[in-house]
Amino acid sequence: MKTQKIPEATITRLSVYSRFLSVVEASGINSISSGEIAEGTGGTPAQVRKDLAYFGDFGTRGVGYNVPSLNEAIKEILGVDKPWRMVLVGAGNLGSALAHYSGFRNRGFEIMAAFDNDIRKVGMTLSGLPILPIGDMAAYIAEHDIQIAIITVPGPAAQDIGDELADTGISGILNFSPTTLSMPDRVSVRNIDLTVNLEVLSFIITNRDFLAGGDLVE
Amino acid sequence: MKTQKIPEATITRLSVYSRFLSVVEASGINSISSGEIAEGTGGTPAQVRKDLAYFGDFGTRGVGYNVPSLNEAIKEILGVDKPWRMVLVGAGNLGSALAHYSGFRNRGFEIMAAFDNDIRKVGMTLSGLPILPIGDMAAYIAEHDIQIAIITVPGPAAQDIGDELADTGISGILNFSPTTLSMPDRVSVRNIDLTVNLEVLSFIITNRDFLAGGDLVE
């Protein structure tokens, strides 16, 4: 697979396509066109074909795509053909919301435990997850072969957590803190800074008349 | 201002620069170099200069940037030089976490009320916000001049909410549901699909050896 120049937007759309295909597949439909995928996901048929073409030739001209095969292929590309074990670091309000979030579990991402440095929380549960002390995190990650950590601690605490995670075998971090984490190359970081997203929206609203098509360049 | 070709990544970095500059400004420091901004935000000096150059010429060679002036200019670009009034649609776990989230309020984004269709929640409060019935939403938005709605309802309910919002004077939506909303052009939509973000991370981890530099094209 040659993925050197894949746009991030293509990967985000593949995730959307796959979840749509899962719904279609569950309804027993076996064949689908790029037009139907586009209609179900708010895109265009040309974009669907272009996104898929980065990874191979999945459809048959005039026949369309086999739904289970295409979905299986996309899941394999995204790496969601196998389960992921995760921990949550920070058992606050956002951590609690994520512990409840069924969208992760439905796609094979399972949060195994939550960690917090507040000793009043330790020993309690968060949506059924045990809340454990931060000091036990490294041992837990090794013992349970955890691959992803979700960080929801406040900004000033995030790099310390990152430093502790760097010494474990973790592969990736979903970082909700506003801190830009400095991590070794073998740990991939994906930032979801909620305030940044809101400020991008306020930029777009404020500058709508100046932006071509109302959109930024992805 | 000529903003037709501004990368989204530049806007996300401007938001990060501005929050960093606010901390610097509060500490009483009056002058800063692009190198210091880069160091404080995890970027490079050349990137800082390039991001700012889209919008004008803010610094003085050999002297650097005046911190309050630069921060004020960036806030004006982002549209966060004035307050924004928002409502929350969906008073579930994620809505509750966002109602608690201080990162929004610190930047002038205020959530005024929450709306939910669960009559058991209506009349209660969510982190101090009144929870009101969805049926009152349009009137509330008009009366309180609400500009942004944050949607945290489940996917299948999101387009109905979008349709109701389309008939109000709202300018933008921060959409946490996995549904791709179909909205009129005068309503800007910013999606934060948590599962998509996790799947982009799993893609990067899974395909790290194939990706140049470990990153996707922005």
TrEMBL record, chains A, B:
Signal peptide location: none
Subunit description: Homodimer.
Name this polypeptide is given: Redox-sensing transcriptional repressor Rex
Residues covered by the CoA-binding domain: 79-180
Entry similarity comment: Belongs to the transcriptional regulatory Rex family.
Cellular localisation: Cytoplasm
Annotated DNA-binding residue span(s): 16-55
